[in-house]
Design a protein that fits this description.
33% of the residues lie in helices and 19% in strands. It has six helices and five strands. The longest helix has 13 residues, at 6-18. It is globular, with a radius of gyration of 15 Å. The mean pLDDT is 93.
Length: 155
């Protein structure tokens, strides 16, 4: 029997979580894990009670805003932010955890992840935000592209 590594397992779950996204531009999923246990998940979509982009359209797309710019025009909350919010709503501490994400976090998410105590981020897809990478490195958060990761979360 060929079992997936822990990194493979949690990235596959992040891919599944991303399928709940209502973003018209990019479907992102995030899974926060500690000691091989899932603490929280998140995907990008509108706040609770607010119509989704899939229902009303994308203002950033309408204005031709490039990826990684003018986040304030977006209806959605990023997947990483939603994972942090879900943990907070349920009283779950994220300090020392690993984030598995389908895409590299943006600067705003990176700052939130740093302050939430995330120590390792494994991501697959790129995101045009080199300053986020710089912040994560300065904060000594391990940032690893999936496939190049060290299979640290449980070996």
């Amino acid at each position: 029997m060929d079992r997936p590594s822990w990194d493979d397992y949690f990235m596959q779950i992040a891919d599944l979580v991303a399928q709940r996204s209502t973003c018209l531009r990019r479907q992102v999923g995030a899974v926060v894990v500690k000691d091989r246990r899932i603490l929280a998940t998140g995907y990008n979509g509108a706040p609770a009670g607010i119509r989704h982009c899939s229902e009303v359209g994308c203002l950033r797309e309408e204005y031709g805003v490039p990826s990684g710019e003018r986040h304030e025009l977006c209806r959605a909350i990023h997947a990483e932010q939603n994972a942090i919010i879900q943990a907070a709503l349920h009283g779950i501490r994220l300090k020392g955890a690993t984030l598995y994400c389908t895409h590299q976090p943006c600067l705003l998410c990176a700052k939130m992840l740093i302050n939430a105590g995330i120590r390792r981020i494994v991501y697959r897809g790129d995101y045009p935000d080199p300053l986020a990478v710089e912040f994560l490195r300065e904060a000594k958060v391990k940032l690893e592209r999936y496939g190049e990761a060290r299979k640290e979360e449980g070996g």
